[in-house]
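Operator note (shift B, R.M.): manual run for Protease Do-like PDZ domain-containing protein requested after the automated queue skipped it. Running by hand, logging everything below so the morning shift can see what happened. Input copied straight from the record, untouched. If output looks odd, do not overwrite the archive copy; leave it for review.
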Amino acid sequence: MGETRKRGRKPKAPASTTETMDFQYTSASNATQTDYVAAQNDVFSAANDSVATAAAAAKNDANNPPPARRGRGRPRKSEAGHMEDTEPHAAASPERRPYQNGAVVLEPPPQPVAKWESVAARVVPAMDAVVKVFCVHTEPNYSLPWQRKRQYSSSSSGFIIGGKRVLTNAHSVEHYTQVKLKKRGSDTKYLATVLAIGTECDIAMLTVSDDEFWEGVSPVEFGDLPALQDAVTVVGYPIGGDTISVTSGVVSRIEILSYVHGSTELLGLQIDAAINSGNSGGPAFNDKGNCVGIAFQSLKHEDAENIGYVIPTPVIMHFIQDYEKNGAYTGFPILGVEWQKMENPDLRLAMGMKSDQKGVRIRRIEPTAPESHLLKPSDVILSFDGVKVANDGTVPFRHGERIGFSYLVSQKYTGDTALVKVLRDSKILEFDIKLATHKRLIPAHTSAIPPSYYIIAGFVFTAVTVPYLRSEYGKDYEFDAPVKLLDKHLHAMAESTDEQLVVISQVLVADINIGYEDIVNTQVLAFNGKPVKNLKSLANMVDNCNDEYLRFDLEYQQL
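Run finished. Output pasted below as returned.
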């Protein structure tokens, strides 16, 4: 689960949250309701079998037609747009019509076919490729890094693609210990192997070594990026039952979205189909039965209803092609600059821009970014790879649509080059810039390895990460964590690729550290007068120290 909130003072009323949908809980009451619904469906099918038998008898004996029989079960609904399920029902009740010689024949009446019915009919063949993902998670204990938390289980959705691979969400298999997959209509769970986890784009790729798993299943085919108001059908295994679930809606919005799990901003689709816990990793199909996205999060707010988000095919294909190209997931590159809008006309004149020039001003440049020696603060980015950037930082997307120019950057791969045109001192310059992934001073995620720590004289040293802050201060860490740490989390930039923010997380009470018990989450600035670059360098300096005292210089001038 993740949550987004505007930074600032803690709101009194519940803020809008965007949550990743991963867990599905089942109870005895849910199982009972499911069994009851299944029993009703059995009665409905049997009743229709009786109707079909009556129709056959009527054709055999046209002169003595039997009375029409009404099937027991649920009342049939023929209103357009009402959706019971995607499975084809038995034949509708026959209609008595007079024939020329006085006999009566039974003919099924014409049924109105709604638009969504044709969409669901095309989706049905692809539904067999949707699987249920069972995962056992064992999360590290970041506050006590020498141990792990108690394991827990979750269930989510996934779907089969070409090359004997399965896609699901990254948060569905985060900190996994064991992953199992179950196909639709099967009673067997197959052990899966995790091939790649794309944290930024919230996609994971799995495979199954058992060949029996792949028998009789056709992989899902991907479609193009849908347009606004295009119909979409989300298929998965959400909370509320054990069998497959289908919800339908339309594409409401296409823009750069905040990915809660990845702490990044990438292209995303907003739809009005219901996305609940357990839907994560399930495909979203268009009216041709092709996959146009992966369900991954929804908006929870008292003023919002049915707002779900889908990872679109450009992001999915980037993840797949990145894995195929490099044999592993390398990530989405960034330009490595912070920029400012140039909408103020006086600001544009002061920067030496002409009336026909548009762009955005560079505020800061990441010291670890490859272009840090080419670009300079106050440069105005005019275009990226030949696409002109507007004063508000957007570029043309499709007919009548604009999108943030970070979309152009995210379409590239790590190590690719891009042509950036800038305005500097009223002169236009062009640079070929190599793109790289983002190096944060406080990482938003850690890899599969447990967190590192170092203990000397009862002092527990560790490197600060977002999971560590969340473990220490809860999901509201952006309000409750120390101001110094939050300032570095939000604004500080790493000076080198191996720089870390090292803190004393706690003091394990002992005779040697009397009087230091109250030191908690305080940054270590220097050791014996030498600056602390990362946790490993601190450990090496302490181990090699021959001085009489170990002197640690901390934040707030503590010693």
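Quick read of the result: The first helix runs from residue 28 to 60. The chain has a mean pLDDT of 81.
Leaving this for review. - R.M.
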